[in-house]
């Protein structure tokens, strides 16, 4: 794979999830730098990792492709690195990575922040953040309990009201999972 082919391939992965402009708002690369990466400039490993974060594309696969486009012209069979992806690394392709669409959790989770949730962790722990689907929108709320056992879904931004869910109605909530990672824009 040559440099231009790699750049085109990587851009296609990123563009499926986020535009160049939005990417430059979240990460520290200027839009013109990203434009070079999109065309004919080989990006550094930090940029590759950021693309992995927004796309969920396996980082190891991106690294292999990048090395095949580099000056060493390595082929996948030539790669003899000590790192081998674990099963956990392969789970990235099944990522639950989202971009925060509102300011309801400011300042903890800023607008346009990337966050990931674990869909296997749906049992509430007080004070923790969880992703929910509310009226077709995915958002985050902090979970608290009142004295009667009701669930309080609070926003860290005080201009948003707390949602009270009666304990008998909890099963009707569309709980996506516990928030396990937040990457706020700079």
TrEMBL record:
Domain (Peptidase S24/S26A/S26B/S26C) ranges = 88-180
Q: Name one Pfam family in it.
A: Peptidase_S24
Keyword match Transcription: yes
Q: Molecular function (GO) terms listed? A: DNA binding
* InterPro entries documented for this protein: LexA-like (IPR039418), LexA/Signal_pep-like_sf (IPR036286), Peptidase_S24_S26A/B/C (IPR015927)
Coiled coil location: none
Keyword Membrane in annotation = no
Keywords tagged on the record: DNA-binding, Transcription, Transcription regulation
* Stated name of the protein: Peptidase S24/S26A/S26B/S26C domain-containing protein
Q: What is the lineage of its organism?
A: Bacteria, Pseudomonadati, Pseudomonadota, Gammaproteobacteria, Alteromonadales
């Amino acid at each position: 794979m040559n440099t231009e082919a790699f750049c085109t391939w990587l851009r296609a992965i990123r563009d499926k999830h986020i535009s160049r402009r939005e990417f430059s708002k979240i990460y520290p690369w200027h839009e013109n730098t990203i434009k070079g990466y999109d065309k004919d400039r080989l990006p550094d490993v930090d940029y590759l990792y950021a693309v992995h974060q927004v796309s969920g594309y396996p980082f190891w696969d991106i690294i292999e492709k990048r090395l095949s486009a580099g000056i060493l012209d390595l082929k996948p069979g030539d790669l003899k690195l000590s790192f081998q992806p674990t099963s956990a690394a392969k789970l990235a392709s099944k990522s639950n990575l989202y971009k925060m669409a509102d300011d309801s959790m400011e300042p903890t989770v800023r607008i346009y922040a990337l966050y990931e949730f674990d869909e296997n962790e749906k049992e509430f722990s007080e004070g923790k953040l969880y992703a929910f689907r509310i009226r077709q929108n995915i958002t985050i709320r902090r979970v608290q309990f009142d004295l009667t056992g009701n669930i309080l879904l609070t926003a860290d931004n005080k201009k948003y009201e707390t949602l009270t869910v009666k304990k008998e109605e909890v099963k009707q909530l569309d709980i996506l999972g516990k928030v396990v990672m937040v990457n706020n824009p700079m």
